[in-house]
Write a structure and sequence with these properties.
rod-shaped; mainly alpha; about 0% strand
Length: about 100
């Protein structure tokens, strides 16, 4: 039979058995807390690993998106420039021929 030990109890009312029972209960609580802490550390390690994998994937996707945006920019500037160059190439000889025909 276990009863709570209070600071108001005189030392002669506390038996060695009561002290050992309380120590055993305290040891069990400490073991329980340590096992919970170990489980939490494992959970934190697993979550950290999962987050690292997700951030790695996100970094890879952002890199690909930047590459696609760069290619789009080059095409957006390059196609009109090429079109203008080909128009001049076609228009200049025709203008020279017209001038030569006059």
């Amino acid at each position: 039979m276990s009863y709570p030990l209070t600071p108001a109890m005189p030392p002669e009312d506390v038996s060695h058995r009561d002290i050992y029972v309380r120590l055993a209960e305290l040891g069990a609580k400490i073991d329980n807390i340590l096992s919970i802490m170990a489980e939490r550390k494992e959970d934190v390690a697993r979550i950290t690993k999962d987050l690292d994998a997700l951030f790695s994937r996100q970094r890879q996707l952002e890199t690909r998106l930047a590459q696609i945006a760069g290619i789009g920019l080059v095409l957006a500037v390059g196609i009109p420039a090429l079109a203008t160059m080909f128009q001049l190439r076609l228009a200049v000889p025709a203008a020279i021929e017209r001038e030569a025909d006059k």
